[in-house]
Amino acid sequence: MSAAIRILVNDTEREAPGDISLAAALLNLGYASFRASVTGEGRGPVCGMGTCFECRVAVDGVSGRRACLEPVRDGMRVTLDA
Amino acid sequence: MTTRPDAIVVGAGIVGAACAYYLSRLGRRVTVVDAAFAGGGTTAAGMGHIVVMDDSDAQFALTSWSQRLLDDLLPELPAAAEFERCGTLWVAEDEAQLEAARNKLACYQGREVDAELLDAGQLAEAEPMLRGGLAGGLRVPADGVVYPPALARWLLAEAARQGATLVEGVRVEAILPRAVRTAEGVFHTDLVVNAAGPEAARLTPGLPIVPRKGHLVITDRAPGFCRHQVVELGYLKSAHTMSGASVAFNLQPRATGQLLLGSSRELVGWDSTINRAVLGRMLRRAMEFMPGLSCLNALRSWTGFRPATPDKLPLIGAWAPVEGLWIAAGHEGLGITTALGTGALLADLIAGRRPALDPAPFVPARALPDAA
Amino acid sequence: MPERGSRALSADIAIIGAGPAGIAAAVHAAGAGRSVVVLDAGPRPGGQIWRHRRREQLPRAARRWLERFDRSGAVLLPEASVVDAGAGTLLGAERHGRAVRVHAEAVVLATGAQELFLPFPGWTLPNVLGAGGAQALLKAGMDVRGKRIAVVGTGPLLLPVAAALSRAGANLRLVAEQAPAGRVLEFATSLWRTPGRLAQAAAYRAAFAGTRYRWGTWVTYVTQADGELHAAYTDGRSSWAEPVDLLCTASGLIPATELARHIGCVVEGGRVVVDDAQRTSVPQVYAAGEPTGNAGVDAALVEGAMAGLAAAGRESEARRFLAERDRHRRFADRTARAFRLREELRDRARPDTVVCRCEDVPLSALHPEWSARQAKLATRAGMGSCQGRVCGAALQHLFGMSADTVRVPVLPTPLGVLADLTDSMDDSQGAA
Hints:
The complex is a heterotrimer of chains A (82), B (372) and C (432). Chain A has one helix and seven strands, in the order E-E-H-E-E-E-E-E. Chain A is mostly beta strands. Chain A has one domain (4-79): Beta-grasp domain (Ubiquitin-like (UB roll), Roll), CATH 3.10.20.30. In chain A, the strands form two sheets. Chain A has a five-stranded mixed beta sheet, with helices on one face. Chain A has a two-stranded antiparallel sheet with strand order 3-4. With 372 residues, chain B is an alpha/beta fold. Chain B has two domains: 7-51 and 148-209 and 312-367, 3-Layer(bba) Sandwich (FAD/NAD(P)-binding domain); 85-143 and 210-308, D-Amino Acid Oxidase, Chain A, domain 2. Chain B has nine helices and 19 strands. In chain B, the strands form four sheets. Chain B has an eight-stranded mixed beta sheet, sandwiched between helices. A six-stranded mixed beta sheet of chain B has the order 8-2-1-12-19-18, covered by helices on one side. In chain B, helix 1 (14-25) packs parallel to helix 5 (148-161), helix 1 packs parallel to helix 9 (335-351) and helix 2 packs across helix 9 (335-351). The longest helix of chain B is centred in the first third of the chain and has 17 residues, at 57-73. Chain B starts with 6 loop residues before the first strand and ends in a 21-residue tail after the last helix. The model of chain B has no long low-confidence stretch (mean pLDDT 95). Chain C folds into three domains: 7-114 and 254-337, FAD/NAD(P)-binding domain (3-Layer(bba) Sandwich), CATH 3.50.50.60; 117-251, FAD/NAD(P)-binding domain; 345-399, no CATH class. Helix content of chain C is 33%, strand content 25%. In chain C, strands 1, 2, 3, 4, 5, 6 and 19 form a seven-stranded mixed beta sheet that branches. In chain C, strands 8-15-9-10-11 form a five-stranded parallel beta sheet. Chain C has a three-stranded antiparallel beta sheet with strand order 12-13-14, with no helix packed on it. In chain C, helix 1 (20-31) runs parallel beside helix 8. In chain C, 55% of the residues are buried. Chains in contact: A-B, A-C, B-C. Chains B and C meet through helix 5, strand 13, helix 8 and strand 17 of B and helix 12, strand 22 and helix 14 of C. Strand 17 (297-308) of chain B pairs antiparallel with strand 22 (413-414) of chain C, so a sheet runs across the interface.
């Protein structure tokens, strides 16, 4: 188990293990819905491998990052639009 | 086609759809025939920019009248047509282009089209993602954008409510006097409208229409990145060359927040494959105006063929050499923009009514060998 | 025009995908003395089935292959996504926001598989995910301890994922195989010929021994009330609903063929067609593993070896693997037939069920007689970020709509990178 790091999720400071994916971290922290669909439905990870694009979040100001492919990093700022 | 229609429109693109719409309102029983499916050809590669063009009196008349016709239909258009009156922003890179913008302003103002000259600072405020160092621009607020396949389908659906029929997946092999021949047989009618876009000359030899290929790219959603249809004034130069490959910056915000990016022009026959060199130049040109584009994700690229004529005006009217044949084709890059005016003008001519627009510049006969 | 911040590489053989097939191809091609570069979108080799954070987490066979790969001399370019392949062997990739061009004499497509997702009411709710997705997320650190989970569907992922979730501490409530009991039993009995596989299946079952394991049972819809998921199941006779924290649907795997189709390889029935030396219809382009037909890791290793050897000019050596390859393929075909999707699964979607998730296009907006392109233009289905990867497969399954052509970029790519990859090409390198 890797040392814990701190990330910001929607401006709230949260803790996560340092060696997991952002999608895993968010799910573990209780965020099931990462983004809003075109008609406003909450959506979360589905394929886990970067194909479906449902796990998109903004990381450090850059939108459209697939959380399932993104490893957590100390200090990363994550914005969920759901 | 079981009953004999009054008119057969060849091509269910936006021009054919507009023709069907206006002919149906005349009370004619119209059948529209398309080799593939409605709005799937050139229409699907159109940017859908509803713009008033001032490069000639005729072009101005046709584009501004078409814009008014669309404005009248706006309350009825479905959401899927995604009409947005975002306005056009013509961008001047240097003083010479800014002078061209001033001339354009004078033209528009002389014709009562609302337009506003912007200096460098005002340009930056209008479109913050444009790079610094540009000379200024011209904003035309009444222009807008629409999603062409949806508009074409709506026009056809409205025509159907007036009794028109759409036949898809049937290729017209030949246009005969008051008839068309397809693989499924010959269908007789009173009049045929050739609205086959870039393929019009295949069906009516002698039409001076050639396919002028263009590339498009659409990005992932970037809401707020751009507010107007942004076009470089150099576009006008690109649209006028008939040789070589040219690119010009042309960017449109779509209702989804995605950005539609063009444009390129080449004459390469019917090769619809992506030409990477041209695509790359088009992207590079766009990023020269808006460097922030480089970070946006491209989702798709595709091509289309504009039906190009030597004098840049479409052919709208009767085609004397073939009995009962009318032409509505050759709109180059303004097909979406001028479809309604084309259909309405054609209906006027067919009905023998006094047309709302001077038809002389569009007369197909100008293309005949013995034309003056 | 000088390339801004882009990089160009060349090698005898470029391999796309560092899963088992790509690894085997690399090992054999390099072993035959060729220079090899392997491009993979992930941070380390292994693909999906051998995905890991630390190698100790992998089975021994996988670790040995990775060690051979390390020693092979093949160059791995991780976090590189191939987004263009003009003329087959001139590749354009995006890596860390920059353009990378790879020029190779031969290319091996080892692009793996993706899950098939079938629409049903509620499939878009959060906490409804693919079984493969659950496995990937589990390996990436998702904590499932105490979570009520159901794994339903069919295919090669059903039992392994159920086992993995159970071992990770999940409260596995139900494992449901949609194939009828008769077919499952018949298949299980046929496994006496391959005792290794029988033992593996038994081991998976043992890992979730305390969980209901039903056959001829499938999920019909999912609803959400008070933040809780409720999944409804049926076995064709009775129906019932249960609360669940995570619902994992397994509808099988399909070949990932976008790059192959982009290059112009002949694809039939969703599979890249290859000959006895893993050659596709495009000269100098080979394919190995899942893209030629989903047949699992053993088939991928054999096909990778064949493709690597053939690409390296050792075709006769490649052909020595033919019997083994065909044996694996026959087994895969038998498995696919036994576990084929039942008709009822196609009928679950209701008019308001979303089919295209990226653009929220419901079933009711789609006309069955349309082509995929027509559907796209009329409804936007397939026009979103996933470029039709999820809904395209669903449309194929529901209506038989075959996929539209694949143009550059094969994956969403920053415009700057796309410009770098394309603007310095001359017109002759155009077509795609």
